[in-house]
Specification:
alpha+beta, six-stranded mixed β-sheet, 131 residues, STM4215-like
């Protein structure tokens, strides 16, 4: 299984999300307010499907950063709009014989100055793996 290709395909899908300033694989040091709004795609665990032989699930996270503006109401409106766009772009998409499923969004993970940060977790379920 070419997991890097899967991440590249996810990145290609996310180019459809209008308004993103920066879209990259991995979470680099030095990410800042200058990159917002940004998406970072980070790989997660690869887990054998206990119910189906030769199938596995590939977990990944989307880090979303948007600008913290003066009016927090505007901040939430923009931020949750991007969360909705990301979910609708990825959820239930077919890829590599499996499909992407949304797991959860961890909102208000604000750890960068002047950036509203959320982490959206997904899994690509049902990948065929020849063991």
């Amino acid at each position: 299984m070419d997991y890097y290709l899967i991440l590249k395909n996810i990145k290609d899908l996310l180019t459809q999300v209008d308004g993103i300033n920066s879209l990259k694989l991995g979470l680099e040091e030095g990410i800042s307010y200058a990159h917002v709004p940004f998406i970072r795609i980070v790989s997660g665990d690869i887990i054998a499907d206990q119910n189906t032989p030769n199938k596995e699930n590939f977990n990944f996270s989307i880090y979303l950063g948007t600008s913290i503006k003066n009016k927090y109401e505007d901040v939430y409106k923009e931020h949750f709009n991007f969360i909705s766009k990301i979910k609708s772009t990825l959820n239930n998409k077919q890829m590599q014989g499996g499909f992407i499923e949304f797991i959860e969004a961890k909102a208000d993970q604000d750890s960068l100055q002047n950036v509203k940060l959320s982490i959206l977790d997904f899994t690509l379920k049902g990948l065929y793996c020849a063991n």
